[in-house]
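Weekly puzzle thread! Below is a chain. First person to post its structure in token form gets bragging rights.
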Amino acid sequence: MPNEFGLAGAQDRNAPTKFAPIYTGRWFSGIWTNRSPLRDATTNRITEKYFGRAGDALIEGSNVEITNRLTLARRPGNSQFDETNQYNSPLSYYGFRTFSSTSEQILLMIDQASVLYSLYEGTRKTFWTKSAGAGQTYMQSVGNTLFFANGVDNKNI
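Winning reply:
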């Protein structure tokens, strides 16, 4: 039997879901392109401190629109994944940030059923070919090292 939090819609901490919907019940502030992302655009400092911020403004609206259900949606005409490469039901994504003293790269890791891809500046490369019976790959980066496991393979690169 759920407690008060469960009755109010809170999820069980022992069974977290992987995905959460993007939903805001109101969009009164609209789009504010010239503002700090750390501060609310429509609320003054005193109101924000004691009552909280409005928090519903879009900072930039490129490739995003608000639907009739008050949710954010991809603008029509945008590809769901990568426009130049084809993917068959990706299992997960991960942003792997590599850095040196002079530069930084962000590799988008794309997990498929049999292979793990890296995508950088529109170029897809095979990062790892999975062993037979491997499931979804879970990834975690520490510094410039990516640790990943899929139930069969446990690797770091």
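Puzzle host: Confirmed. Bonus trivia for everyone else. Residues 92-156 form one domain.
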